[in-house]
Amino acid sequence: MKDTWKKVLFEYFLITISTLCMAVGIYYFKFPNNFTFGGVSGLSVVLSPFIPLSPSAINFIINALLLILGFLFLGRGFGIRTVYSSTLLSVSLSLLDQIAPLSAPLTDEPLLELIFAVLLPGFGSAVLFNIGASSGGTDIVAMILRKYTSVDIGRALLLSDLLITLTAFFVFDMKTALFSLLGLISKSLVVDNVIESINLCKSFNVVCSSPDKICTFITETLHRSATVFEAHGAFSHNHNYVVLTVLKPYQAVALRRFIRENEPGAFILITNTSEIIGKGFQR
């Protein structure tokens, strides 16, 4: 029970930090430059000239409808975390507007501001997606597509936001619309790469003549497990063993150093992997 509460608190800590990152990126870099990238915030800005409601009111209505869809298609747990993140994002944007208002771009370099407008919200969205949450808006549509189709999360975001960004070509000037389109494409790549980096592990295939020392180090020092196969050298015809294990990056450094010092004749194959399902990893 205690471990469960620790996990929940840590998840909400990550949600809080990620959402605040998004708020800073949106308020200080996205809004002043009219970068839409799609999303509910972009849709609200696009619709506000044609609807007798403020962008914040339009944003609230659309987010409420999408949260209902999230509850229906993704489950109650998703909805609770997303309601928290969506509410925190709205409150944070309002507080920034009151405490440190900004009505014009920070610099006269739109490309520089575009980079921050992509990186900060992209990083925040990726962390939220990785723990099964979202800041609301069209992110919910993307997660529904991810659950019921084989579309990657970045591509799902691209599909759900593309129409909104294209609409910006008819509302804003060409320069702003082109920057928004570039931002949309860049954000989808950032999200995919951040998610992959968060889940990154190192897969080891170690060919050696004596696996006992290596296995002992893996199990007793790194507190991981390993699988040992018998192998036969195609060229040398020697009888060898293959030790297979998957480790976190910091553990991989320790194992590589240990093998070099204690089994210098071992052949080591190390590959990056981000999709691992099983005990000790994703379930």
TrEMBL record:
GO terms for cellular component: plasma membrane. It comes from the Bacteria. This is YitT family protein. It comes from Candidatus Caccousia stercoris. Coiled coil: none annotated. The chain crosses the membrane at residues 12-29, 60-78, 84-104, 111-133, 153-172. It is a multi-pass membrane protein. The keyword Cytoplasm does not apply. Its main location: membrane. Keywords: Cell membrane, Membrane, Transmembrane, Transmembrane helix. Pfam families: DUF2179, YitT_membrane. InterPro entries: DUF2179, N-reg_PII/ATP_PRibTrfase_C, UPF0750_membrane, YitT. Residues 224-278 form the DUF2179 domain. It is found in: Cell membrane.
